[in-house]
Amino acid sequence: MTEKPDSRRADLKQLADQEVINREGAELGAVDQIMVDVADGRIEYVILTVTDEQNGSDRRVAIPWSQFRLSADRHCLELDISLRILNAVARNRNVLG
């Protein structure tokens, strides 16, 4: 039996390696990992791979799932942050919250 697509659900396989953009449409990075709480099945946070604009190196940063928005019209994840701030967070290995 084939299910019809539902705009309220997303396939986790499709979110892996997904591009992440900000509200202005600038590319911020890509989904590296999606971490799930095994007790309740909820997504806890997403690990993004971010390319540092200063030196070109890739860094990973964990961002709480609550900070993301699934953009149905753009078919990607949105995060309300500038690339400059995200790079600073990645360099300092902080977690947004």
Write a brief caption for the model.
The protein has 97 residues and is mainly β. The protein has two helices and six strands, in the order αββββββα. It has one domain: PRC-barrel domain (SH3 type barrels, Roll).
Number of strands: 6
Write the CATH fold name. SH3 type barrels
Annotation field: number of helices: 2
What is the radius of gyration computed over CA atoms, rounded to a whole number of angstroms?
14 Å
Distance between the termini: 40 Å
What is the overall pLDDT average? 81
Order of helices and strands: HEEEEEEH
Q: CATH H-level name... which superfamily?
A: PRC-barrel domain
Largest sheet: 6 strands, mixed
Provide the domain count: 1
Q: What's the architecture in CATH terms?
A: Roll
Strand content: 35-45%
Poorly predicted runs: 1-5
CATH class: Mainly Beta
The 3D shape can be described as globular
The assigned structural class equals mainly beta
Protein name: PRC-barrel domain-containing protein
Domain PRC-barrel: 13-73
Organism: Elongatibacter sediminis
Pfam families: PRC
